Amino acid sequence: MAMDLVNTSPTVWRGVEKLDALDALTAFLGEHGLGGWAVGPDDLPPVRALRERLRPLIEEPDPERRVLVAGELTAAVGGVTLADGWAATVPDGTPVTAMLGAVAGLGILAVQLHLGPDRFRPCSSDTCSGVFIDTSRPGRRRYCMPGLCGNRANVAAHRARRRAAGQG
131 near 111, Cβ under 8 Å? Predict the structure, then answer.
């Protein structure tokens, strides 16, 4: 979720804001199993600010610093508890930004602990400025959005091979 939130930024989408309206935020929450959370127009600016705080955290080269900042995100919501598996509960009335920060912080901490600090990477696409957290089993993911960035890279490589072979 943290990576997906970061990658809604206009810096990733060449100036296009993917969280441009309340319905976009509501859809984002629904896509990440957080549907039904009450949001209002005043929630958009703080969620965008959280997004800008998360990017440097994903890019952070120091694993200890990453743990410290992710821990601060979870601590901002008093009373976060872990339930079965990865489920977390937050107190009633928690603002959406604090809830998203806690979820992102817990996710980042879990990846850091279970998969290691080398799973936090920039997108390998020459045309993308996205970042991602590689949660794939083998840990070989290269693109923030494989269906978009990976496909673009594959098409460009295919066209380059065809040009080199004189086929157009």
Answer: no
Residue 73's CB: how many other CB atoms inside 10 A?
Answer: 25
Report pLDDT for 159.
83
d(CA 102, CA 3): 14
Tell me the per-residue pLDDT of 101-152, one tens digit each, with 9 for 90 and over. 988 998 898 899 899 999 999 999 888 888 999 999 999 999 988 888 877 7
The SS3 assignment for 145 reads: coil
Give the C-alpha distances (Å, rounded to integers) separating 157 from 29, 109, 125, 161: 35, 36, 11, 6
CA-closest candidate to residue 48, choices 88, 89, 101: 101
Asked if residues 18 and 8 have their Cβ atoms less than 8 Å apart, the reply is yes
In total, how many domains does the chain have? Answer: 1
How far is the C-alpha of 160 from the C-alpha of 168, rounded, in Å? 9
Q: What are phi and psi of 122, to 5 degrees?
A: -85, 155
- Residue 118 sits in a domain whose CATH number is 1.10.3300.10
Taking only Cα atoms into account, the Rg of the chain, rounded to an integer number of angstroms, comes to 18
**Position 86 pLDDT exceeds 70:** no
pLDDT at 118: 93
Which pLDDT band, with edges at 50, 70 and 90, does 155 fall under?
A: confident
In which domain, by residue range, is 81 found?
2-164
